[in-house]
Write a structure and sequence with these properties.
The complex is a heterodimer of chains A (490) and B (337). Chain A is an alpha/beta fold. Chain A folds into two domains: 57-195 and 359-399, D-Maltodextrin-Binding Protein, domain 2 (3-Layer(aba) Sandwich), CATH 3.40.190.10; 197-356 and 428-471, Periplasmic binding protein-like II (D-Maltodextrin-Binding Protein, domain 2), CATH 3.40.190. Chain A contains 19 helices and 13 strands. The longest helix of chain A is centred in the C-terminal third of the chain and has 29 residues, at 458-486. Chain B has one domain: MetI-like fold (Orthogonal Bundle), CATH 1.10.3720. Chain B is mostly helical. In chain B, a hairpin with a 7-residue loop joins strand 1 and strand 2. In chain B, helix 3 packs across helix 15 and helix 9 (198-224) runs antiparallel to helix 12. In chain B, strands 1-2 form a two-stranded antiparallel ribbon. The chains are: A alpha/beta (490), B mainly alpha (337). The interface between A and B is large, with 57 and 52 residues.
Chain lengths: 490, 337
């Protein structure tokens, strides 16, 4: 880095030879080029707040912040809750917050998930970042932000506001990053989520009835039903994987059912043995088998995720394995025909397990000028009252409030909320597999298309996942070692 | 930015030997400078190159530098670093470029882009030439209408094109439905989800988009060809094929070069179509450099690698357009039309 800077400057100031004719013509060009390089030649990333752990304003908090004493303040909030119910819910809560604290104004910047992802990095590394942001869990976003010292640890606030007891630890852990910005799922708390989500099984009661199948109570009943539905001339499982990521969800469910839940959870957080195991291979075999037997559509890799959901809503397919976020839309078009459940356990009445987690974490930036107000805002939008507002708008709150008890008996919303509570009680949530390494999303989503297609064998998938896993763990360990060696002795 | 004119002015001034200062230092500096410059130009023959020319270029050059040269320099600089976009960058030297040449997953996008050129450049130009030659031989009623229809894909936003074709190529989309309707059901497949067919399928969209541009370009060119040439070649007894190769093709040389340049550039910087239709899938069968640049810079925090890829793409586009200018347009032979 340093050497680069020196050479950059040298080329601009070296001419000591007499000006020759040739030289004269090149001087302007050389000057322009040197100027161009100099303009560009600041080492990126060194002008910001610096190393990890910088700026820990949250650490000083000893009493519950009171925004009403904060004077006139504007809280800038960047979020991605742009879809129907989520947008309504947040707008209501923002208005209520402003009403409660008339001295605080909330400036909301709402962008779609991918727009937020691409612009957030620039926004929060600037000198006047937003106060509150929604950070995606995992290495590419939240861990990278923590490494760069851009987020405020919220542990003190978590104590003051009793977030530690409000949330199950499984959920809270997903928003933790170790202080050195190396590990994910442990360490300091850097965010708090508003909503919950998990992968479940939607079913179309009409199609099941036609095939003479009851909604499955166990995973075995579900798999046994597939050939029966197929024989009736109906599609057993609707599935569209053109967008690459949906297979990660389906695969996660299959892996959990094959008994790989515990190991997968440990490995996602970098504490496990990885993915060279039987459940991983069995899940891949099942997925390939479903394709071969026609339980999932022939053109699965060429059908969009949204298109598949639309087809399911139109009555094409008995089951659809996807996240709770689809519920409001499916309910709207299917009405009473729609049923939902967490993936049924191996034995009737046993504890459910599935892939899932929570919405993006709400975090406070380390350069925020109103960290206390920001913390109060976080508490407000995740409170019991906020949970009720979310339920009213059809959104699944991470911690369901009293309004969840009032959802109509037997409705699909009730099935969803009940499933969520069972999962949390049983500690049955396995984080999304793509959190495992920074490039796991890329490799796994591409490889699973190969598994669906039949061009990648289950063994190959398992060993590729394992290679990616160990390579990343090795890299982390060697970095850790280097850091330990490079540290000056106290 | 202002470096080129001032430096050259000073240099020429020194070479010409500044005239004696008649005011003996009494006038202000600006006045002296103006007189000095004016005096220098009075001694020059008109038409001789003058440094003042730089002044006219300056506004455009300034814009060009601010919006193109500086970002380009920055990209080159970033490509020499390992940077995640947030924390302090570390010096990478040529690491990123070496990876570009050795890592198969980084090389593949370039190979895909080059094979896409068949669909984006070669096919549209060939089709365009054929159509233009045919249309020039016959008087077609409603020519303006056909021209407009053929050119329409160029006017549409690529996002719209991508969404429309994604539904056409879907497993139960228009294409497969048509195939089934004419009894070719065995040929149906999920075009965008098939490892072998996804790239040609995306390429076909490119052909559809670019052909109109080529046809319109060539039709304009054909109208410029003197009728006498056609008459002469017909009197000499040439058939339509001979006529095409002897008259039309050579006369359309400049247009062909323009069409090739435009389509090659469009093909290589193809991002939106891939983003909308396949996101590089299935697997990585349709990943292209432009998509990878975006993906690495914004999604996987590998800014250095993304920048190197961007520079590689720039170099490739530059090399290809220069060779088109040399080989097809024949600029190196000093010909000008």
């Amino acid at each position: 880095m340093r050497s680069a800077r020196v050479t950059g400057t040298d080329s601009g100031t070296s001419p000591r030879r007499p000006h020759s004719r040739h030289r004269r013509r090149t001087v302007p060009l050389a000057l322009a080029a040197a100027g161009m390089l100099l303009a560009a030649a600041c080492v990126p990333g060194t002008d910001g707040s610096g190393a990890a752990g910088a700026g820990v304003p949250g650490a000083g908090a000893t009493a519950k912040p009171d925004p009403s004493k904060a004077g006139k303040a504007t809280l800038t909030v960047w979020d991605q809750e742009v879809r129907g119910g989520q947008n309504d819910e947040l707008e209501r809560l923002n208005a209520e917050f402003e009403k409660k604290y008339p001295n605080i104004r909330i400036k909301r910047v709402a962008r779609s998930f991918s727009d937020l992802k691409t612009t957030l990095k620039l926004a929060i590394s600037g000198n006047r970042p937003p106060d509150v942001i929604q950070a995606n869990q995992g290495y590419p976003d939240m861990v990278a932000f923590v490494q760069a010292g851009l987020l405020t640890p919220l542990d003190d606030y978590a104590g003051l506001y009793a977030w530690n007891t409000r949330y199950p630890s499984t959920l809270l852990n997903l928003n933790r990053v170790s202080a050195d910005g190396r590990d994910f799922g442990t360490g300091r708390l850097y965010g708090i989520s508003q909503t919950g989500e998990y992968i479940g099984v939607y079913y179309n009661e009409d199609v099941l009835e036609k095939a003479g199948v009851k909604p499955p109570g166990t995973w075995g009943e579900l798999t046994d039903a597939l050939p029966e539905i197929k024989d009736e001339g109906e599609l057993p499982v609707q599935f569209g994987n053109l967008d690459k990521y949906p297979a990660i969800h389906t695969f996660g469910v299959l892996q959990n059912q094959a008994g790989g839940a515990e190991e997968a959870r440990e490995s996602v957080f970098g504490r496990g043995k990885g993915f060279d195991n039987e459940p991983t291979r069995e899940a891949a075999r099942t997925l390939a088998d479903w394709k071969k037997k026609g339980y999932i559509p022939e053109g699965a890799n060429g059908t969009g995720y949204d298109d598949a959901a639309k087809k399911f809503a139109d009555g094409e397919g008995a089951f659809l394995i996807t996240g709770t976020w689809q519920l409001p839309d499916l309910k709207k078009s299917m009405g009473d025909k729609l049923g939902f459940m967490p993936p049924p356990p191996a034995e009737r009445g046993a504890e459910p397990v599935t892939t899932g987690g929570q919405g993006l974490a709400w975090s406070v930036t380390s350069k925020s000028r109103h960290p206390q107000v920001a913390a109060a805002y976080l508490d407000f939008i995740t409170s019991r009252h906020a949970a009720d507002v979310m339920t009213e708008e059809g959104v699944l709150p991470a911690v369901p409030g009293s309004a969840s008890r009032e959802v109509p008996e037997g409705s699909v919303d009730e099935q969803m909320v009940e499933g969520w509570e069972q999962l949390n009680a049983a500690d049955g949530l396995v984080p999304y597999l793509d959190y495992t390494t920074p490039d796991f999303y890329d490799s796994l989503s591409a490889d699973l298309q190969g598994v669906v297609n039949g061009s990648l064998s289950p063994d190959e998938l398992s060993s590729k996942m394992q290679r990616s896993y160990t390579a990343f763990q090795d890299k982390k360990n060697s970095q850790e070692k280097k850091r330990a060696e490079g540290k000056p002795k106290p | 930015m202002s470096a080129p004119p001032t430096a050259t002015d000073a240099a020429t001034g020194a070479a010409a030997g500044a005239g004696p200062d008649r005011d003996g230092g009494r006038a202000g500096l600006p006045v002296r400078l103006l007189r000095h410059t004016a005096g220098r130009y009075r001694r020059r023959a008109p038409g001789q190159p003058r440094a003042v020319g730089y002044l006219y270029v300056l506004p455009a050059l300034a814009l060009y530098a601010v919006f193109l040269l500086v970002p380009l320099g920055q990209t080159v600089w970033l490509s020499l670093l390992h940077w995640d976009g947030l924390t302090a960058a570390t010096w990478a030297g040529t690491d990123n470029y070496r990876a570009l040449l050795t890592d198969p997953s980084l090389r593949a996008p370039f190979l895909h882009a080059l094979s896409l050129l068949v669909f984006y450049a070669a096919l549209p130009v060939a089709l365009g030439l054929m159509l233009a030659a045919a249309l020039s031989r016959f008087r077609v009623r409603g020519m303006t209408f056909f021209r407009t229809v053929l050119f329409l894909p160029q006017v549409l936003a690529m996002v719209v094109v991508g969404v429309a074709w994604r539904s056409i190529l879907a497993p139960d989309g228009l294409l497969n439905d048509t195939l089934r309707a004419v009894g070719l059901g065995s040929l149906t497949r999920s075009w965008l989800g098939d490892y072998t067919w996804a790239l040609p399928a995306v390429g076909t969209i490119g052909t559809w988009v670019e052909t109109g541009l080529c046809v319109v370009l060539f039709l304009a060119g054909v109208q410029r060809i003197p009728r006498e040439l056609y008459e002469a070649v017909r009197i000499d007894g040439a058939g339509p094929l001979r006529e095409f190769f002897a008259v039309t093709l050579p006369a359309l040389r400049a247009e062909t070069a323009v069409a090739l340049t435009l389509t090659i550039v469009a093909g290589l910087r193809n991002f939106d179509l891939i983003y909308i239709t396949t996101s590089g899938g299935p697997g990585n069968a349709t990943s292209v450099p432009a998509y990878e640049v975006y993906h690495r810079a914004f999604e996987t925090n590998e800014v250095g690698s993304a920048a190197a890829m961007g520079v590689g793409l720039t170099v490739l586009i530059f090399a290809l357009t220069v060779s088109v200018a040399r080989l097809v347009e024949g600029r190196s032979e000093g010909r000008s039309r």
